[in-house]
Amino acid sequence: MMPTGYVHPDYAAAFGDFGEPLSLPKCQGWLLKRTIPGTDHHDAMGCYPLFSCRDWAHLPQDLTDRAADLVSVSLVLDPFGEWELSGLHAFFDRVVRFKEHFVVDLSVPLDSFVPKHHRYYARKALRELKVERCENPSSRVEEWTSLYSILVKRHQLTGIKAFSMQSFARQLAVPGLVMFRALKDDHCLGAHLWYIQGDVAYSHLLALSEAGYAMNASYALYSEALRFFGSSSADHIHWAQIGAGAGSSGTATDGLTQFKRGWSNAMRPTYFCGKVMDSFRYEDLCRLAGVSATAYFPAYREGELG
Fold it and tell me: In the CATH scheme, what is the code of domain 108-237?
């Protein structure tokens, strides 16, 4: 099978502003190779939001083969990856249960577990909005970027989460991308991007206009997407991965967590994994940065996200 979604090389290429795409040929995954500020050394990270690959058994060997080029590697693992926790602990220096992700077993009828609150707001939104699956997402890059700019402003997103139009142009062309649009009188008030990998549909990004927020378009978009993925039109898709809410436990009571919990009927953990590839340079960089014991990995980048 051809690679799609997060494992496709074009997805890694969409992050060219933040690092050089680095192929892991045995496991068929991708990293972003980054210059460590103030040095001529490099480290690597997985692409946002998840690192995924096609042959997890070969990930350690690929990273070992890259040891001469990198000081450290940090990854947030795909919750549907075929990794074993014991193997992670055996190879990585840092393995932290990171976030619980909400997932949907699509073999279960949606109305049997989605709460009345979510179903009510979905029906209400759908009385005024039409949700359609976009046949050519690449043709909607300007529309999507405009919607996403509202999300950036609302949540003051910066860095890798802010994206550029050039990045979105690449993302919308990646094989496996599915876009749903919420329309009012043929005007797009919101859109939801998904990536298909194997039998999993990954909720990637959702963005709304101010009118879309007012009309609860997110309920309509989630409802119609999950019904589509659970239908005979997408009978090879068994799971939907809709990401995490606030915090790390999945027990938070904020609006985003409650929203995602309402659409899910199961949970899967993600793990953050860090590996020091060059211990001498790693320790020297930590010394130069004035850090020692810290929960952040890599320690010499502590504070990079503000």
Answer: 3.40.630.30
State the span(s) of the chain assigned CATH 3.40.630.30: 108-237
What is the pLDDT at residue 252? 66
Cα–Cα dist 225/124, whole Å: 16
Instruction: Decide the pairing of beta strands 177-184 and 130-133.
Output: antiparallel
What are the tokens at 69? 């080029």
User: Does residue 247 surpass a pLDDT of 70?
Assistant: no
Distance CA 264, CA 252 (A): 15
Burial of 242 from C-beta contacts in 10 A (0-12 / 13-18 / 19+): buried
Annotation: CATH topology of 5-101+269-301: Aminopeptidase (3.40.630)
**Residue 293, pLDDT above cutoff 90:** no
**pTM of the complete model beyond 0.90:** yes
CA pair distance 223, 126, nearest whole angstrom: 9
